[in-house]
């Protein structure tokens, strides 16, 4: 494939944008080479600035569960834009999307809209701290909750000790309030809770992790966390930015029957526009300003265009619930197909899948937490795989630590083509 124009655009971008990108993982730094610049997208396909057509397994990192430029979403945005783009006053559509979200998601009474997943998680933690009067939080190594300071804490310093920042700019003062636990390790969480008695506001996690590849919760893990929280008054926060409105209409809470105290959303809820949200039962949500004392705000929160896209997306998902089964079947088909060809080609691999999230790790051992994901992240092999896929028209995430997000716009021909390319690329390993 030719990437001449993308390369020129990247050179221009780097002069005026740090690294040429507005979000780091887009830069292909982990896999080498240069990013492709996309001109347009439709359904399951991206079309780049050089005219290459790619089957897309990123879908804007998750939001586009029905594929690109989905007509009801686009029509809703265009119609709304004609009436003005932002008013800074309440609008009816904010209530409409809130009503629908509250109907679709179990165990929430009220929802507040923000502009990104980062804001949602950051605000959820502030609310948990305000509600409980406690300051510490537990997060899991390998889970990503956006780039706010409390979450940029690296793994490795041991579970019971204080976290340390992994980004310059995060102060030690902030880092000491974030305790790190191992995903899928209940004993580890119990130890942390015991060692920090009456100091912990919340446990936040991706209930199906998607930021170290896809890692489903082990049997009993979420139930165990719920029990710990019930016994201690700690709030359980599900970061469903990736999984909300994707793994089921009501997300992981619906799939597993485990209730969280606060749920964070992003991605699908905005239909591809910048939206995040957090939600809980009345008792907790009424702690927020202007009713309660915990402050949280946003000039563009509940923006009409973003709400129009989100409402159109949720309306589609709510009224055509068969979509969830359809997309899951497609993911299972891809899983089986890749499993077959990778086995035939004698590749060491582990495929993890939950609903329409799937990832391929190039190692034999089960991938259940950050350590095992890191061990299986055979970066040399992954990078070869990534570039082989791209060269053959398949766009997957440019990092070994990301999940693939399927869209229901993918046809079985697209999936067959993908499996064929996986076969071709890994034959050459
Ligand atoms: N939480 C999770 C689980 C995410 O995957 C992400 C982003 N990938 C975020 C939070 C942050 O969302 P945003 O990038 O919209 O700020």
Automatic annotation (TrEMBL):
Q: What compartments host this protein?
A: Cytoplasm
* Alphabetized SUPFAM superfamilies for the sequence: PLP-dependent transferases
Q: Which reaction does it catalyse?
A: (S)-4-amino-5-oxopentanoate = 5-aminolevulinate
UniProt EC number: 5.4.3.8
Tagged with keyword Ion transport: no
Its pathway, per UniProt, is: Porphyrin-containing compound metabolism; protoporphyrin-IX biosynthesis; 5-aminolevulinate from L-glutamyl-tRNA(Glu): step 2/2
What GO CC terms are in its UniProt record? cytoplasm
Against CDD domains, the record matches this protein to: OAT_like
Q: Which cofactor does it need?
A: pyridoxal 5'-phosphate
Main localization, broad class: cytoplasm
- Any one GO molecular-function label of the UniProt entry: transaminase activity
Q: Which residues carry this modification: N6-(pyridoxal phosphate)lysine?
A: 267
Top-rank EC class of the record's enzyme: isomerase
What interactions and quaternary structure are annotated?
A: Homodimer.
Would you identify the family this protein belongs to, as annotated?
Belongs to the class-III pyridoxal-phosphate-dependent aminotransferase family. HemL subfamily.
Name by which UniProt lists this protein: Glutamate-1-semialdehyde 2,1-aminomutase
Native source species: Christiangramia aestuarii
């Amino acid at each position: 494939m030719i990437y001449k124009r993308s390369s020129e655009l990247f050179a221009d971008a780097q002069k005026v944008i740090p690294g040429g990108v507005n979000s780091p993982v887009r830069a292909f730094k982990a896999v080498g080479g240069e990013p492709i610049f996309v001109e347009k997208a439709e359904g399951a396909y991206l079309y780049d600035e050089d005219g290459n057509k790619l089957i897309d397994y990123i879908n804007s990192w998750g939001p586009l569960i029905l594929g690109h430029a989905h007509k009801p979403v686009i029509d809703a945005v265009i119609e709304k834009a004609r009436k003005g783009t932002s008013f800074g006053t309440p609008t009816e559509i904010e209530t409409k999307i809130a009503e629908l979200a509250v109907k679709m998601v179990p165990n929430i009474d009220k929802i507040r809209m923000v502009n990104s997943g980062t804001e949602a998680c950051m605000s959820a933690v502030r609310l948990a701290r305000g509600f409980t009067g406690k300051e510490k939080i537990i997060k899991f190594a390998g889970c990503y909750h956006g780039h706010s300071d409390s979450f940029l804490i690296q793994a490795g310093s041991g579970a019971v000790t204080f976290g340390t920042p992994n980004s310059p700019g995060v102060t030690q003062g902030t880092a000491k309030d974030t305790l790190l636990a191992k995903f899928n390790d209940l004993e580890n969480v119990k130890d942390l809770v015991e060692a920090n008695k009456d100091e912990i506001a919340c446990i936040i996690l991706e209930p199906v992790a998607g930021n170290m590849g896809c890692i489903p919760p082990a049997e009993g893990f979420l139930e165990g966390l719920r029990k710990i929280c019930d016994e201690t008054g700690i709030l359980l926060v599900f970061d469903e930015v990736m999984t909300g409105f994707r793994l089921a209409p009501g997300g992981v809470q619906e799939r597993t029957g485990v209730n969280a105290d606060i749920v964070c959303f992003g991605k699908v809820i905005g239909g591809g526009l910048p939206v995040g949200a957090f939600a809980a039962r009345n008792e907790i949500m009424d702690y927020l300003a202007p009713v309660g004392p915990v402050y949280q705000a946003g000039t563009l929160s509940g923006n009409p265009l973003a709400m129009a896209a989100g409402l159109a997306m949720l309306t589609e998902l709510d009224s055509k619930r068969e979509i969830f089964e359809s997309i899951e079947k497609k993911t299972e088909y891809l899983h089986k197909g890749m499993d077959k060809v990778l086995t035939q080609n004698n590749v060491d691999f582990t495929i993890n899948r939950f609903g329409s999230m799937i990832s391929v790790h190039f190692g034999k051992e089960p991938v259940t937490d950050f350590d095992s994901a890191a061990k299986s992240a055979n970066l040399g092999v992954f990078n070869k795989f990534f570039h082989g896929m791209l060269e053959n028209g398949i766009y997957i995430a440019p990092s070994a630590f990301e999940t693939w997000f399927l869209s229901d716009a993918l046809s079985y021909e697209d999936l067959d083509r993908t499996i064929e390319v996986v076969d071709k690329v890994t034959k050459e390993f």
